[in-house]
């Protein structure tokens, strides 16, 4: 007969539940090194200096009427009554790539959609935009990288230029439009949509949303001041707002990449993005494509039909 098992105490015979499965967490994302936004900042400064060199106020005006001619020479500013922002003449801005309805629509100088973003009407205009660029752009580039922020900046700027020239066309105005405001408002709009599409990962949601709405409202209110092109602000903001849903999506809270799970563990993982994030992305892409297509068609197709009447359709 077999031997009787030795006596076991109650503690030794107790059945303990299995240990809980280990939890895995994604490592904290590493911040990018911001170099594109400072490069854009330096490019804007350099282009403004070249603009003032090309302007050469003393060569076209009376030396006494130009501002600070004694200290700045050919870099002196236009008379205050002509340009209160301490900058060049309109002729210089037009020469270097300012946005003007006749030159873009009738001469098809579409490169002005891009070049006008790097021109500024004066020192006051330049400093205001560059302060906003460094304050907003550097933080966004550190979080999302230079590729996404570069695309966001450029497309938002072009969106602002498109709405600005449509406004100039409707108003039949011969003025020019310059500045990086459209692109900067695109960054503001993207910050708002980034907050909305990544709502689940924020702690103080309402406070962040309220503060951001106040900042956006104050900046848009500046556009109602005289000689400010608010249409470029609105166009850039809308383009950046919808681009934020496309370019600035973050993984939802609790998502763990498979490469951070050790072999042999079968862990139920969350999907990378939520359903509403995909919905916002899809709708925003459609709105962006239709918006740019409609704006360009309204700008160029209608003008072509007026220039060549035989292209117009007639009822049969």
Structure report:
With 316 residues, the chain is an all-alpha fold. It has one domain (30-253, 273-307): Rhomboid-like fold, CATH 1.20.1540. It contains 13 helices and no strands. It has helices at 10-13, 36-55, 57-60, 69-72, 90-96, 101-106, 112-115, 123-144, 146-171, 181-197, 205-222, 230-247, 275-307. Residues 308-316 have low confidence and may be disordered.
Brief write-up:
InterPro entries: Peptidase_S54_rhomboid-like, Peptidase_S54_rhomboid_dom, Rhomboid-like_sf. With 316 residues, the protein is mostly helical. The protein is 58% helix and 0% strand.
Derived from helix and strand composition plus strand pairing, the structural class reads mainly alpha
CATH level 1 class label: Mainly Alpha
CATH topology: Rhomboid-like fold
Percent helix, as a range, is 55-70%
Subcellular location: Membrane
Organism: Phaseolus vulgaris
GO cellular component, one term: Golgi apparatus
EC number: 3.4.21.105
What attributes does this structure have?
Rhomboid-like fold, mainly alpha, 13 helices, 0% strand, globular, 316 residues
Write the layout of secondary structure elements.
Elements: H1 10-13, H2 36-55, H3 57-60, H4 69-72, H5 90-96, H6 101-106, H7 112-115, H8 123-144, H9 146-171, H10 181-197, H11 205-222, H12 230-247, H13 275-307
């Amino acid at each position: 007969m077999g031997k009787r098992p030795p006596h076991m105490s109650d503690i030794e015979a107790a059945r303990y539940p299995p240990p809980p499965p280990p939890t895995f967490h994604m490592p904290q994302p590493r911040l990018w090194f911001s170099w594109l936004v400072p490069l854009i900042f330096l490019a804007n400064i350099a282009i403004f200096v070249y603009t003032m060199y090309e302007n050469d106020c003393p060569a076209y005006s009376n030396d006494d009427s130009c501002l600070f001619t004694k200290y700045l020479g050919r870099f002196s500013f236009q008379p205050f009554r002509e340009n209160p922002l301490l900058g060049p003449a309109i002729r210089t801005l037009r020469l270097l790539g300012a946005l003007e309805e006749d030159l873009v629509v009738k001469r098809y100088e579409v490169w002005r959609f891009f070049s006008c973003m790097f021109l500024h009407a004066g020192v006051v205009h330049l400093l205001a935009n560059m302060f906003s660029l460094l304050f907003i752009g550097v933080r966004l580039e550190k979080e999302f990288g230079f590729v996404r922020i570069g695309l966001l900046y450029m497309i938002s700027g072009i969106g602002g230029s498109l709405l600005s020239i449509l406004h100039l066309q409707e108003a039949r105005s011969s003025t020019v439009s310059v500045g990086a405001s459209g692109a900067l408002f695109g960054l503001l709009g993207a910050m708002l949509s980034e907050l909305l599409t990544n709502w689940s990962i924020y702690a103080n949601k309402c406070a962040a949303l309220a503060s951001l709405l106040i900042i956006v409202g104050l900046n848009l209110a500046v556009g109602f001041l005289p000689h400010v092109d608010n249409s470029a602000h609105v166009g850039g903001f809308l383009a950046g707002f919808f681009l934020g849903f496309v370019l600035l999506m973050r993984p939802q809270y609790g998502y763990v990449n498979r490469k951070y799970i050790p072999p042999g563990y079968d862990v139920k993982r969350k999907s990378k993005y939520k359903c509403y994030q995909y919905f916002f992305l899809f709708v925003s892409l459609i709105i962006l494509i239709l918006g740019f297509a409609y704006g360009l068609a309204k700008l160029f197709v209608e003008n072509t039909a007026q220039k060549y009447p035989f292209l117009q359709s007639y009822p049969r």
